[in-house]
Amino acid sequence: MKIRKFIQPIVIAVFAFLLYSNTLGHKYALDDKAVYWKNEFVQKGISGIKDILAYDSMAGMFGKDSKELEGGRYRPLSLITFALEVEFFGRETTDVAAKQPFLGNPGISHFLNILLYIISLLILYKVLNRLFRDYKPKYEFLSIPFLATMLFAAHPLHTEIVANIKGRDEVLAFLFSIAALNSTLNYVDNKKFTGLISAFIYVFLGSMSKEISITFLAVIPLSIYFFREEKFSKLVILTIPLIAGAGLYMILRSLAIGDQTAIEASMLMNNPFLGTTFAERYATVFLTLLLYLKLLVFPHPLTWDYYPYHIPIVGWTDWRAILSLILYLALFVIAIYGLKKKTIYSYGILIYLATLSITSNLFFNIGAFMSERFVYVSLLGFCIIFAYLISEKLAQKITHIKKYKNLSIGIVCVVLLAFSIKTYSRNFVWKDNLTLFGHDVHVSVNSAKGNSTYASELYKLAEDAEQAQDTLLRDKYLREAIPYFEKALEIYPDYSEALVRLGNIYYKLDGDYKKMLEYYLKTLETQPLEADVWANTKGVLNFNVDEPEYEKYIWKRFSELAPDYYESYFQLGSLYYFGGDNQADSAIYWLEKSKTLHPNHFENLFYLGVSYGNINDFQKARENLLLAVEISPNIEAYRYLGISYGMEGDDKTALSYFEKALALDPNNEVMKAYVELAKSRLN
Hints:
Blueprint: H1 7-20, H2 32-37, H3 40-43, H4 49-54, H5 59-62, H6 76-89, E1 91-93, E2 102-104, H7 106-131, H8 144-154, H9 159-162, H10 168-190, H11 194-209, H12 216-227, H13 232-257, H14 278-297, H15 319-341, H16 344-356, H17 379-397, H18 401-429, H19 433-440, H20 448-467, H21 471-491, H22 496-510, H23 513-524, H24 531-544, H25 548-561, H26 567-577, H27 584-597, H28 602-614, H29 618-631, H30 635-647, H31 651-664, H32 669-682
Antiparallel strand pairs: 1-2
């Protein structure tokens, strides 16, 4: 008997491992960049943990003060596990998405994801056995705990979590949340006060993994209410440590990232409801809620990409939104009606609704329409109801044991086989970015992000081919990327990533810098400080183009689109500066505007000083040149200072600056001549 009780846990563990064993050879994909190989804190190993705890979870990638941190994500625990991996298992690793080697070990990361997933399943099985202790199945492998756990393990919606390294935050959050429920049962069933202490710790650790654990402040007392006969006062008592655990997390979160509730993302990719009416927003929310129900039962097709506009914006004239509202009202009524009777239907629905509540967009905008990972925990309610129907209701309908057993096993095997095949095959798609994006772009055909992301992956391959001096392969990848970037812009005309890279492609393929700059100007209309646009434009116009009037036109357009940024004014001033002495006034006009915005720019000050000298305003010439040499001692700046004094007959001061210039380069023949000339004039 002792050995027999381990059979089902072993079956669950082996089953789950086999399901995800084909991920062990996978690399990094999707958000692994942000949480692992591009995360500065994680890459530091143990020494980075203090920063992981002190800042937003994306700060390690974007920087501690980046505007990309709007919205607030404080989930340090999974990042700490990654940092520990780097410390103990990290080795120099390369990835097609990374331009430089980094510390990592994807095989270890994927193995740990599977291991943690299995541990969470075993705890779940234990907890369900304790909750359903009064339910006696007709056949042990058709018990509610075993069926629910197996279905939960096999469900294809979990592939995004387990097959993607970043998904560890969800796995850990569920693991600690279900452990908190187990500890609470220890308090209720065994009168162990330590159960409350451990429940507090587990809820805290779960919340530090991901905020979904906070929903267990409802799930845990509901579970006790449904499966134990406890007074309301005891439910209150057991909830206190749960609130304390979540409260401690909220305090640490507030200290790390502040109050983010009033900040609304201004970009469509971070705010899919941008520009929608109140009615459109909630109609679209209910459309996504309908899709969740569909994916619970029929998880196909799956995609990482539910960005605009794979999910379309709809109004209340759309039958799907209306149907969804009706279905969810019905589910809510069933849940409330069964609350007093403590029905399993009510319990399963309440788990689904409670855990989906914070990611549903019903109460606050989470920055995405929907995601498969958002129902990672929620589908547990569905699994419990399915197991109950097979184990209890079907058994009541079919009293003949053999017939019931054969039919039930048949149904379960068909469902598990279908889910397992889908899960195992879906895992292959998560191999790496190119595989994932290349597959799912044909699912999320109307997603701007999906099209642009896949095109960007092809663009990176083109850059690698260019570095290897394989022009034919480079051009092949660039041409393959074009229709996907164009599709992204058809969906979202202001998408800066697509605009910039499509412009780059036309320049790389055809040398068409004017077409490139058309895309750049369009980018600056919504992203006036897009770094790649400014850097690339400077490089192309300064080194590869010799059309002064066209260059002036471009920089004037840049100045109109980014009036508070100095660079366009400096570039205009430079064009007039090098245009000759008769353009000195125009050079001064633009360089002074640049100086107002960037007073410590050496070249700007130097050009400004020389330009003032060209119109014989030697006082202002010296003011700017002296500021320039304070920033960086320079031969030419000292030479022009000397010339300015010499032009006014102050040969002694002129000589001092010529000598300073010569001191910087004692072998400079030109400066030697200036020194000798100044000395001769003094004699």
